[in-house]
Amino acid sequence: MDQPEKHSAASSTRDAILDAAENIFVERGFSDTSMSKIAGAARVTKSLIHHHFGSKEQLWMEVKNRRFHEYFSLQKEQLAKADTGIESFRSCIINLFYVLKNNPEMVRLISWHLLDRAQTERHGDEKELTEMGLAKVLEGQQLGYVRKDMDPRFMLISFFCLVFHWFMAKHEYVKWVGISEDSTNLDDEYLNNMLKIFFQGVLPR
Amino acid sequence: MDQPEKHSAASSTRDAILDAAENIFVERGFSDTSMSKIAGAARVTKSLIHHHFGSKEQLWMEVKNRRFHEYFSLQKEQLAKADTGIESFRSCIINLFYVLKNNPEMVRLISWHLLDRAQTERHGDEKELTEMGLAKVLEGQQLGYVRKDMDPRFMLISFFCLVFHWFMAKHEYVKWVGISEDSTNLDDEYLNNMLKIFFQGVLPR
DNA sequence: AATAAGATTGACCGATCGACCAGTCAGCAG
DNA sequence: CTGCTGACTGGTCGATCGGTCAATCTTATT
To answer: What confidence tens digit (pLDDT) does each residue in A123-179 have?
Structure first.
């Protein structure tokens, strides 16, 4: 009973391959990752990977789909149970920030994905999540705590820019502007300043 | 006289290789680019590339250095002759936006560079440019048109996020929020909304 | 004309790439 | 027991990878 039976053994092997592949893909990207490396890391043979996933491209797709689906589901779930009002609005933003802070692999995966020229039709997860986000902004506009002379879509995109790009490029920016990267509360400092800009702007009030 | 002499012929060959390499590197990244492809595109032999640049890595470095140096010099030049005042401050921002809009290769090059784990010590161009930017913000704070309760460094970074990430990811975001990508003034629409946020924030005034 | 230096070439190297194949083995249904 | 299916392996394929080398061509200098 403790021993996994046939099917679960197979699916756990599949997962092991997916895990190993994700680690290496995230680190080195698609092209610089070889099936041999993945096989070695997953402790299986190359042939087995082909048996389960068909090709390197399909493996890459499955790795991305798995992680993206998990991520978008989590975000949708958290956004769904969000309350109304300016404070909740603010909390949603802070929440996304910390989710990404705790999942740097996710950030790199998105980066690789953005550079991918292959225009793959993705599932509707992100579409749904985005529409929930748009609804949240619209709600804020109707309730009066979000200014109405702005396109909610661009507002959402601007917010994504402020969050994603920080985690994508902070290791470079801290060198430019002279912040020590291992400052314990570096992310929080950025978050505070970024929130000031996002909510109130850089002009004095 | 019309014919380039020996040295300029060599340097023009070098440039041809750099140009070809940049095109392919920008499109496919370092790992997915082969010396053969570059050689073919530059109409030279692989051996000649090794003769001029030594290795693929060094060629990659030179490609990045050339473009980055050109970019940062241009930005420094334009920032140096910028005037004082809120309007000039605004112009600098709009200026950077359009420079990147007109240089999508630069955006991709930065993206690949950000994913690169190789921590190469880069030249001081970007450091100088950043300090000029910081000075501009400080100036605004002293003259009173930039709020003082904010760290200029994080303000600069936030601004970079709003510009760079838009060009890195807009092809994905427009799919999410349902904007047609070939809208003639898509970039301008984003710019207007982004500027509203950056200067005044999303809260009603 | 002789020479040196640099630009350029084609042939070639060992290594590694993704993929494929025939075959083994275990488990399950009949 | 028989037959089938799917997990899994070792070996190998042709292609391509980055890189090297000796030889040749081009040009400037002497």
So the answer is: 788 889 999 999 999 999 999 999 999 999 999 999 999 999 999 999 999 998 888
User: Is-above-0.90 flag for pTM?
Assistant: yes
**How far is it, in rounded angstroms, from Cα B75 to Cα B132?**
10
CB of A177 within 8 A of CB of B156? yes
The residues close to strand D, meaning Cβ under 7 A, are: A 6, 9-10, 13-14, 44-48, 51-52; B 5-6, 9, 33-37, 46-47, 50, 55-57
Task: Count CB neighbours of B177 within 10 A.
Answer: 19
Report whether A63 contacts A21 (CB < 8 A): yes
Three-state SS string across chain A, please?
CCCCCHHHHHHHHHHHHHHHHHHHHHHHCCCCCCHHHHHHHHCCCHHHHHHHHCCHHHHHHHHHHHHHHHHHHHHHHHHHCCCCCHHHHHHHHHHHHHHHHCCHHHHHHHHHHHHCCCCCCCCCHHHHHHHHHHHHHHHHHHHCCCCCCCCHHHHHHHHHHHHHHHHHHHHHHHHHHCCCCCCCCHHHHHHHHHHHHHHHCCCCC
pLDDT tens figures, B86-141: 999 999 999 999 999 999 999 999 999 999 998 787 778 888 999 999 999 999 99
